């Protein structure tokens, strides 16, 4: 029954893989012994010889690259320990990925992989056998549930199917796969079933070549140690929580941690929760690392860190980029752990990314014995050790521009001096300023004309709340209703889009930084090494009616800063959703004009593209106009980018954000996979991002260059690949496609003249609708953008 779910690739793999086993064995069950054990399977294939080549950079115990250990396979995506989960872990990770199998024995002693003590949370066992739950004493504590050892292997194999037990992960594959046995994983069949964990391990065929066995129980490891001599097996001691008592010695794991030397007597390595190495403070910021890894290495003990996943809230120091977290453990100045136990093995693989290439230059080359010949090879990691690499220059098909969205607004409040400084430091090519106007005509940068969304205005200027329906339907506190001195009394407010869902951005900097006027922004840009600036102009018509000439102010400021001179070494991009605004900048030939289509479209008609070419040489489109999704799965790429490229228009895509809730399942909750996808599958010319450091880290990595033919590289997502695995009916019906862009959507009415004096202040009522519908087409765009974000949120996992 399970076999029919096998994909060919996996079956084939079984033929040429060499198997090594790592077992993590448990304490005794039922009062004395725990009813399951942990089993880690190490799969090695391909050019093993080359793996042993020297890579001096790694500060692991043996100097080898750290191991990627897939907990229950690729359990971040598929039901834990299922066939798809293991299969994907193998096909998407470094070639020597270790498969972690938490082994449970059936009543007749067959080994199944299933993480956790009981079965009801991750299988449908409670529905099939509703009355077969039991309570066992495990390490002195009563545990109630459905235990594998109360069921025969036939029952588990034939009647029980797997489900996803973590809410934020896809339930699409629920009920489609049965329990996975070691036999499934290895194509082996154990003639003799044994009831005790120790007997089970000792009964495994010798050619299983067990490499590691680990257990949280000291006596078990000691007992097994004496009996496994003939196998080339390492024993690993697994730490549970610091306050938990180790069952045989009754000491807490915290106490045992202080006596690493005693572990050396019976184990060659340890598994610890990652917080034992990089502890967090109560605010979820990283503290200094402990000396655990260095102490263990000094004793000759290997250290494996556990608890990694892309889709959980992580320390704010990582800015929601899971790769940064792995690098903290394997690529810091002081040490590298020897292995990472993760639910998302491809992301860990991207960080480790063991690569071999035949040498082109002599530098860093190593002699390697491979396939009976001696080769000169170079070993390169993907993301590790690449921080010091130069960022390759953008353009000409090399890589897309990194364009910020309100500066590094993922890290500091958007459009503040701190956000811009961070963006420059993080390697942004183009920093952006969305220009707003105060009531008294001061131009400044801010993400929204509604101050309540990115400042503390809501606490101090409630009286200025109004509704301006041509801008947005909900009421707000608009910049043009406050003077610059009033605005300067406000503080910036870092409100990430997923704060409500629990993913705050850098709370320590919530109100940090100061607002930046347009001239200050230009000064800051001039003094930096960015290759250009992007000035965004919104609501110009609406402001003109209020006596505020946004276009003139921007032109004046740019000219005053000499940005209009052809020889300026920094590019100026003028971006607007309003063709009349772009038309007004035609008189500055040095400026590049960018039309932003902030409404989701599914295609662009030829006449609409022709119309765009009248006003702009570049277009910024939303992610939803390029990648179509259904139930958080990528289904296809639209032709929008090709249409625009065919007309020689440059295409930027945005807005990229690191938070996993912003990423479809096909990106594996990894923002770098999304960047890789827009770079090499979509061929975008610019990436608009709130986290420029993430994009820069990718482009500094050799793995961003797919033409290098690296043995492991970070691959773009393939739309449809996951959807095709889902059972028919498992996905919601597809939404109707977004509209096709037509010329009428592109062309805007001419800008009204700037009113001589501002109109009377808008009344403070929610119904106040101050101006006509002359700009309603743009206002509609804004709503659609908001709608697109809302739609994304509603299909996200909460
Ligand atoms: C199973 O899920 C329930 C409810 O979410 C939780 O309280 C319980 O601890 C889980 N049990 C196990 C063994 O994970
Ligand atoms: C378990 O599966 C077998 C074989 O498919 C079937 O005959 C039996 O009725 C099932 N038992 C339950 C409780 O569903
Ligand atoms: C984490 O971030 C906090 C706040 O920015 C900083 O003080 C701390 O030094 C950082 N920790 C590490 C290990 O980088
Ligand atoms: C080594 O040999 C295998 C099988 O013969 C082949 O697939 C592989 O490409 C060879 N590797 C190199 C680096 O030549
Ligand atoms: C610009 O300078 C900063 C340091 O000031 C550096 O971190 C960054 O990499 C540089 N960017 C480029 C594109 O050279
Ligand atoms: C406001 O809401 C109405 C009705 O829902 C809609 O037709 C209109 O386009 C919206 N306007 C803006 C500016 O969002
Ligand atoms: C023009 O630039 C200079 C120096 O950069 C500045 O002092 C002056 O205020 C600017 N004038 C305007 C109108 O922006
Ligand atoms: C695009 O540019 C190329 C070269 O600059 C030119 O040959 C081609 O005709 C242009 N295509 C369009 C549709 O303008
Ligand atoms: C990568 O492989 C392709 C096709 O096999 C080949 O054309 C190309 O030259 C290779 N690139 C490098 C850098 O070896």
From TrEMBL:
It comes from Zizania palustris (Northern wild rice). One of its GO terms (molecular function) is glycerophosphodiester phosphodiesterase activity. This is glycerophosphodiester phosphodiesterase. CDD domains: GDPD_SHV3_repeat_1, GDPD_SHV3_repeat_2. Residues 751-770 are annotated as: Disordered. Residues 66-352, 400-699 form the GP-PDE domain. The chain crosses the membrane at residues 5-22. It is an enzyme of class 3 (hydrolase). Keywords: Glycerol metabolism, Glycoprotein, Hydrolase, Membrane, Signal, Transmembrane, Transmembrane helix. It catalyses: a sn-glycero-3-phosphodiester + H2O = an alcohol + sn-glycerol 3-phosphate + H(+). Its EC number is 3.1.4.46. PANTHER family: GLYCEROPHOSPHODIESTER PHOSPHODIESTERASE GDPDL6-RELATED, GLYCEROPHOSPHORYL DIESTER PHOSPHODIESTERASE. The keyword Transport does not apply. InterPro entries: GP_PDE_dom (IPR030395). One of its GO terms (biological process) is lipid metabolic process.
């Amino acid at each position: 029954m399970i076999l029919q779910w096998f994909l060919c690739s996996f079956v084939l793999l079984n033929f040429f893989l060499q198997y090594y086993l790592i077992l993590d064995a448990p304490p005794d069950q039922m009062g004395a012994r725990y009813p399951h054990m942990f089993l880690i399977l190490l799969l090695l294939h391909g050019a093993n010889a080359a793996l042993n080549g020297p890579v001096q950079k790694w500060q692991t115990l043996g100097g080898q690259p750290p191991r990627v250990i897939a907990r229950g396979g690729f359990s971040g995506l598929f039901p834990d320990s299922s066939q798809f989960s293991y299969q994907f872990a193998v096909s998407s990770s470094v070639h020597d990925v270790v498969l972690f199998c938490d082994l449970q024995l059936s009543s007749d002693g067959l080994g199944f992989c299933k993480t956790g003590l009981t079965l009801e949370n991750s299988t449908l066992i409670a529905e099939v056998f509703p009355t077969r739950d039991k309570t066992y004493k495990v390490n002195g504590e009563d545990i109630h549930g459905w235990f594998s050892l109360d069921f025969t292997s036939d029952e588990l194999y034939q009647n029980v199917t797997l489900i996803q037990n973590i809410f934020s992960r896809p339930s699409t594959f629920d009920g489609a796969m049965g329990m996975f046995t070691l036999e499934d994983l290895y194509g082996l069949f154990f003639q003799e079933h044994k009831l005790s964990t120790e007997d089970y391990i000792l009964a495994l065929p010798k050619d299983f070549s067990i490499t590691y066995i680990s257990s949280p129980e000291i006596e078990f490891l000691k007992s097994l140690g004496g009996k496994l001599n003939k196998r080339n097996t390492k024993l690993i001691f697994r730490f549970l929580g610091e306050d938990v008592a180790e069952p045989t010695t009754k000491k807490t794991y915290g106490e045992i941690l202080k006596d690493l030397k005693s572990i050396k007597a019976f184990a060659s390595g340890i598994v610890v929760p990652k917080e034992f190495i990089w502890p967090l403070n109560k605010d979820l910021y990283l503290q200094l690392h402990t000396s655990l890894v260095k102490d263990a290495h000094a004793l000759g003990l290997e250290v494996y860190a556990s608890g990694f996943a892309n889709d959980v809230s992580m320390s704010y120091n990582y800015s929601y980029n899971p790769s940064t977290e792995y690098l903290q453990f394997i690529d810091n100045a002081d040490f590298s752990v020897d292995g990472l136990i993760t639910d998302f093995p491809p992301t860990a693989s991207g960080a480790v990314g063991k690569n071999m290439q035949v040498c082109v230059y002599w530098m860093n080359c190593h002699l390697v014995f491979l396939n009976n010949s001696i080769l000169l090879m170079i070993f390169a990691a993907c993301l590790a050790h690449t921080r010091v690499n130069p960022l390759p220059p953008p353009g000409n098909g090399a890589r897309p521009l990194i364009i910020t969205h309100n500066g590094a607004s993922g890290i500091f409040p958007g459009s503040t001096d701190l956000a811009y400084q961070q963006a420059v430091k993080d390697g942004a090519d183009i920093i952006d300023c969305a220009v707003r106007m105060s009531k008294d005509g001061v131009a400044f940068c801010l993400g929204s004309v509604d101050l309540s969304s990115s400042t503390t205005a809501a606490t101090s200027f409630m009286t200025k709340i109004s509704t301006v329906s041509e801008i947005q339907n909900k009421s707000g506190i608009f910049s043009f209703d406050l003077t610059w001195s009033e605005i300067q009394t406000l503080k910036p407010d870092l409100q990430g889009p997923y704060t409500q869902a629990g993913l705050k951005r850098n709370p320590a900097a919530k109100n940090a930084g100061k607002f930046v006027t347009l001239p200050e922004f230009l000064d800051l840009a001039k003094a930096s090494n960015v290759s250009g600036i992007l000035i965004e102009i919104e609501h110009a018509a609406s402001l003109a009616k209020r006596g505020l000439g946004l276009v003139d102010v921007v032109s004046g400021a740019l000219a005053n800063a000499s940005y209009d001179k052809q020889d300026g070494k920094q590019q100026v991009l003028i971006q607007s959703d309003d063709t009349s605004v772009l038309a007004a900048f035609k008189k500055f030939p040095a400026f590049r004009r960018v039309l932003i289509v902030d409404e989701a479209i599914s295609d662009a008609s030829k006449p609409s593209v022709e119309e765009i070419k009248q006003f702009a040489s570049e277009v910024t489109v939303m992610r939803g106009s390029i990648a179509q999704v259904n139930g958080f799965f990528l289904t296809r790429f639209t032709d929008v980018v090709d249409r625009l490229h065919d007309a020689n228009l440059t295409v930027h895509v945005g807005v990229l954000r690191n938070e996993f809730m912003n990423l479809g399942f096909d990106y594996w909750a990894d923002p770098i996979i999304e960047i890789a996808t827009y770079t090499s599958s979509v061929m975008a010319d610019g990436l608009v991002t709130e986290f420029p450091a993430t994009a820069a880290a990718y482009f500094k990595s050799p793995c961003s260059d797919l033409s290098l033919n690296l043995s492991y590289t970070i691959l773009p997502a393939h739309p449809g690949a996951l959807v095709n695995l889902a059972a028919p009916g498992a996905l919601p019906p597809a939404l109707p496609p977004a509209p096709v862009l037509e010329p009428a959507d592109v062309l805007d009415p001419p800008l009204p003249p700037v009113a001589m004096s501002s109109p009377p202040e808008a009344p403070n009522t929610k119904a106040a609708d101050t101006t006509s519908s002359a700009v309603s087409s743009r206002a509609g765009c804004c709503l659609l953008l908001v709608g697109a974000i809302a739609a994304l949120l509603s299909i996200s996992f909460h």
